[in-house]
UniProtKB/TrEMBL annotation:
<dbReference type="GO" id="GO:0016887">
    <property type="term" value="F:ATP hydrolysis activity"/>
</dbReference>
<keyword id="KW-0677">Repeat</keyword>
<dbReference type="InterPro" id="IPR050107">
    <property type="entry name" value="ABC_carbohydrate_import_ATPase"/>
</dbReference>
<keyword id="KW-0472">Membrane</keyword>
<feature type="region of interest" description="Disordered">
    <location>
        <begin position="500"/>
        <end position="523"/>
    </location>
</feature>
<dbReference type="GO" id="GO:0005886">
    <property type="term" value="C:plasma membrane"/>
</dbReference>
<dbReference type="InterPro" id="IPR017871">
    <property type="entry name" value="ABC_transporter-like_CS"/>
</dbReference>
<keyword id="KW-0547">Nucleotide-binding</keyword>
<keyword id="KW-0813">Transport</keyword>
<dbReference type="InterPro" id="IPR003593">
    <property type="entry name" value="AAA+_ATPase"/>
</dbReference>
<dbReference type="Pfam" id="PF00005">
    <property type="entry name" value="ABC_tran"/>
</dbReference>
<feature type="domain" description="ABC transporter">
    <location>
        <begin position="255"/>
        <end position="499"/>
    </location>
</feature>
<protein>
    <submittedName>
        <fullName>ABC transporter ATP-binding protein</fullName>
    </submittedName>
</protein>
<keyword id="KW-1003">Cell membrane</keyword>
<keyword id="KW-0067">ATP-binding</keyword>
<feature type="domain" description="ABC transporter">
    <location>
        <begin position="3"/>
        <end position="239"/>
    </location>
</feature>
<keyword id="KW-1278">Translocase</keyword>
Amino acid sequence: MKLELKGITKRFGSLVANDHIDVVVEPGQIHCLLGENGAGKSTLMNVLYGLYEPTEGEILIDDKPVSFRGPGDAMAAGIGMVHQHFMLVPVFTVAENVALGGESTKPGGFLDLDVTRRKIREISDKYGFDVNPDALVEDLPVGVQQRVEIIKALVRDAKVLILDEPTAVLTPQDTDELLDIMRQLKSNGTSIVFISHKLREVREVSDTITVIRRGKVVGTASPTASTTELASLMVGRAVSLTLDKAPAVPQETTFQVKDLTVIAPSGQHVVDGISFDIARGEILAVAGVQGNGQTELTEAILGLQQRVHGSILLDGEELTGRSVKDILGAGVGFVPEDRSVDGLIGSFSIAENLILDRYDQAPFAKGISMSPAKVLENAASRIEEFDVRTPSGSLSAGTLSGGNQQKVVMARELSRPLRLFIASQPTRGVDVGSIEFLHKRIVAERDNGTPVMIVSTELDEVIELADRIAVLYKGRLVGIVPAGTARNVLGLMMAGVTPHEAANEEPTSPNRPAASAEGGDHV
C-alpha cells in the first residue's frame, strides 16, 4: 500500500506545528521521520492516524484521497499506530487488550476471545514474538508489551505501521530485537513509518529518511549519510557529536550513599538498599530503563521523599531528614528530570527563574526587599555565559524553547559554588546543538573538582559522560562498572543481569546482527 501526505498543515491557534509537509511512503518501505523533540513528527502522525484533523492538505492511499474522522477510520484503511506511551490496560490479558475496540461475542452477549487468541498465536509464531495470549500485561517486560501493541495493529490487517519513538523505553537488546521485527515486517510487505531522533537506529534500519525541523521538511537523506550530516540537517548548522573529555582525575570521596531504601506509599521498596559513592572530580552516571528507581533516588537525595531509610553523606554531613532548602543551601545543585514541572516556573521571568534558590540571599535581596537591578544584572551575565537564546531576561521562561529552558535550569544550578551536582535526564527534549553545549558544562563542573551524578535513560549519553556507570533495575543496584564497559553488557545489566554474567553473555543472538558500534551518537 502506498501512502502519501501532501501539503499537510496543522495549526493550533497561532502555532504552526506542521507546515505544508509532503511525505511519500512506498509499499514495503521503512521510512523514517527524523527530527528533534518538538519538530512536529508526532503531530504529523496524529493527523495521519485520525487523531487530529489537518488544517490544510490531504492524505492519499494508493493515489486516492481519503479522510479520517478518527483512528477507527485510519485502522479500517490499513493504518496502525504504536504510540510512544503504550495504550494497554495493565490488568487485562494480552488477548483482552488486543480485542478492545473490535470485540466479538458468543450467543448471549458473552465475550469471545478464542478467535483473538488464535490470531495472536499466528502472528506471534510468524514473527517469533513469543507472546502468550493469556498473560497479564502488567506481568510482561516492556519489550514484550511493545510487541503486544504491534500485534494489536497486525490483527487489524495494518498495511502501514506507525512507530512513534518506539525505543524510548527499551534496553539496547530490546531495541535490537525491535529493529529485527521491523525488518521482518518489511519483508512481509508491511510499510513502516519510523519516528525517531536517534541517529544510530535510523541509519541501521531505514530505507529513506525525511528530516523535519520546526514543522517543515528540510531535506531527505539516505541511511548511508553520516551521523554528522543527519545531525546538521536536524539542527540547521554544523554540530559536533563527539565530546572531547580528558580522563577524570578523582580526588577524595566526599559523597556517600549507604543502604538507601525509599518506600512508596503503596509499601513497595522503589529504591532497595543501594550503596555507592562519588569522588570529587568524577562523573557517576546512573543507567537504567525509566521507572527502575532513578527518580526516587534523586528525590531522596534532595529531601523530596518522605519514607527514606539509610544514610546520605556529603562531606561527612548527614543529608537525610533535612529540608530541600537546607540541602540546596549545603551546596547541592540539582537539575530535575522534568524541567517544566520541577525546574522552572513558566510564568516567572527568565531572570527570576535564575535565582529561584537564592532569591532571599545577597546580592539579590536585603532584608525583605529584592533588588530588581541585581536580578537583571545576574540574568544578563548567565544568559551570555550559557548562550540562552532570548532577547531579554525579562521575558517569561515559558516562552523559551525546550533547549533554552534547560540551559536556564543548568545556569541557575551551576552559577554558585557546589559540593555536589546532580542532573537527571540532563538533555531530555533538547536539540543536538544544546546537547553539545550542556555536556561540555557538565564535564567542566567535574573538572572543577565537583562530584557529579548523572541519571539518564539514554545509554549513549551515559557512555559519553561517565567515568563510572551504576545500573539500576527494579530499585536495586545491579552493579557499578567502569567507563568503556561494552554496550551489550550494559544493556544486559539494565535487564537485571549481573555484571559478571553479562560479560560472559554472547554479544548478539544467532539471528540478530550486531548493533552499530559507531561512537559519538548521543541522540
